[in-house]
Amino acid sequence: MTNEGGSAGFVDVRALLLRTDWNAVEHCCPNVAPMTPVILRQLLDDDPRVQGTAVRDLYGAVTHQGTFYSATAPAALFVAAILGDPRTLAMVTSQRPWEIDQHGEQLSLLRVRLLGWLGDTAQDTDYPPEWPPGRQEDIEAFLATRPVLYDAVHPFLGDSEQQVRDAALFAILPLLADPALTRHVPALTDVVHELAARDTPYRWYAIDRLAAWGQDTSRYPQPPQPDPNDFADAVAEDVTHGDHDPWAGLREPWPDSVYDSVQ
Questions:
Q1: Is 7 within 8 Å of 85 (Cβ atoms)?
Q2: What pTM was computed for the model?
Q3: Secondary structure (3-state) at 257
Q4: What distance separates the 2 farthest-apart alpha carbons in the chain?
Q5: CA geometry: angle at 119 spanning 25 and 111, to 5°?
Q6: Buried b vs exposed e over 54-84: b needs ≥16 C-beta within 10 Å?
Q7: Please, are residues 20 and 8 in contact by the beta-carbon 8 Å criterion?
Q8: Mind listing the pLDDT tens digit of every residue in the chain (263 residues)?
């Protein structure tokens, strides 16, 4: 597997983290979840289990339930900057032990998961004014990163791995709403049609974007309607396992500053 696009090698994590005053920003749960720079540093840990947990914390804390926080924009810039690091080729899972026991371990490339997080986060900005939740200044801070995120993700459209190419395209699609990036839509239309024609996790969003661009999507199936019972089952599982608190259990308190521990 090649390390195409983005950085040519290992990134300097400390230098990247020091671009942001992390004491001046926060995520959803500063007294419960790890501090944002701790989460970000653990994305490039030597242990894939730690990396997978860091991905879960990205979703659980930095964009909790689709909410934007002051830490969201700088975290997104960090994630974009590390996409080409060879350590993102690790196979990871964000599942908890009981989820692995119940459903089996589901491994995927960390790079794919990070592209997915960027895409999910950018996609959350598609539906104002009711969505996304968060302070307007935090949402606008993320929106301002879209050209930088595009430049970081675009090289992975040519990755040797199909799963990386698909995830990169998914991450790019919502970024194209930025007025500075709409000019790229015509060049990407054909590849988005190709994505819409395949059974992938990104198919429905590809169809949605094509429709928004005025493209004919009649050849594609309609998105499936969720079964309300599925949600009931999911809630029941969460209650059974006490999973409403994603950081259930004891954690050591984090220091006021993590700069001394950044490697």
A1: yes
A2: 0.83
A3: coil
A4: 57
A5: 90
A6: bbbbbbbbbbbebbbbbbbbbbbbbbbbbbb
A7: no
A8: 344 444 458 999 999 999 999 999 999 988 777 999 999 999 999 999 999 999 999 999 999 999 999 999 999 999 999 999 999 999 998 888 888 788 888 889 999 999 999 999 999 998 777 778 999 999 999 999 999 999 999 999 999 999 999 999 999 999 999 999 999 999 999 999 999 999 999 999 999 999 999 999 999 998 777 665 554 444 333 333 334 344 443 343 444 444 444 44
CA atoms within 13 A on the CB side of 233: 5
Q: What is the Cα–Cα distance from 156 to 60, expressed in whole angstroms?
A: 26
Q: Whole-angstrom distance between the N-terminal and C-terminal Cα of the chain? A: 27
Task: Kindly report whether the peptide bond that precedes residue 253 is cis, defined as omega within 30 degrees of 0.
Answer: no
Return the CA Rg of the chain: 19
10 Å CB burial of residue 134 (0-12, 13-18, 19+) is: buried
Residue keyed to tokens 């983290």: 17
Contact between 234 and 103 (Cβ < 8 Å): no
Which residue has 């230098």 as its token pair? 15
Where residue 123 falls (left for φ over 0; alpha for ψ -120 to 50; beta otherwise) is: alpha
Q: Which of 123, 115, 78, 112 is nearest to 1 (CA)?
A: 112
Angle at 68 between CA 59 and CA 120, to 5 degrees: 50
What H or E segment, with its residue span, contains residue 92?
strand 91-92
